[in-house]
Amino acid sequence: MRFGVFGAGLIVSTGILAVQAVPGKAAGTDEDAEFGVLKVAEGVEETYYTCTACHSERIVAQQGLSRAHWDELMEWMVEEQGMNEIDEPDRTLILDYLSEHYNEDRPNFPRR
């Protein structure tokens, strides 16, 4: 079986996705440490727990997608990766969070 390593701990193998957890940088509070590298703002909790069920929050933080592309990516994860559908109002809250803090301008891209 062949493995390829991409980015910070992402390993892809014959259709199976596995992610090595990378500890997040705490900015000084327990709340900051709880959500790893994700920006603490409305929707961070729902985003963190939904996304880290399958992969590191760093995978999220490294992206820079428009709201439409985040939406498409979430659909792809449901259809192709077996992710559970995200019920409302959490789906909209997560999309709002991602499109504000991890958009194409990448204002919160982790620098370390």
Low-confidence stretches: 1-29
Structural class determined from secondary elements:
mainly alpha
Sheet bearing the most strands, described?
3 strands, antiparallel
Assembly state (oligomeric): single chain
- N-to-C terminal Cα separation, in Å? 31 Å
Secondary structure: helix percent? 40-55%
Gyration radius from CA atoms, angstroms: 14 Å
One letter per element, helices H and strands E, the order comes to: EEEHHHHH
Q: How do the strands line up in the largest sheet?
A: 1-2-3
Fraction of residues in β-strands: 5-15%
Strand tally is: 3
Question: What's the mean pLDDT score?
Answer: 77
Indicate the overall shape: globular
Topology:
Elements: E1 4-6, E2 10-13, E3 16-19, H1 30-34, H2 44-51, H3 57-61, H4 67-81, H5 90-101
Overview in brief:
Helices cover about 40% and strands about 10% of the residues.
Write a concise keyword list for the protein shown above.
single chain; 112 residues; mainly alpha; 3-stranded antiparallel beta sheet; 5 helices; 10% strand; globular; disordered N terminus
What does this molecule look like?
This protein has five helices and three strands. With 112 residues, it is mostly helical. Strands 1-2-3 form a three-stranded antiparallel sheet, with no helix packed on it. Mean pLDDT is 77; it is low at 1-29.
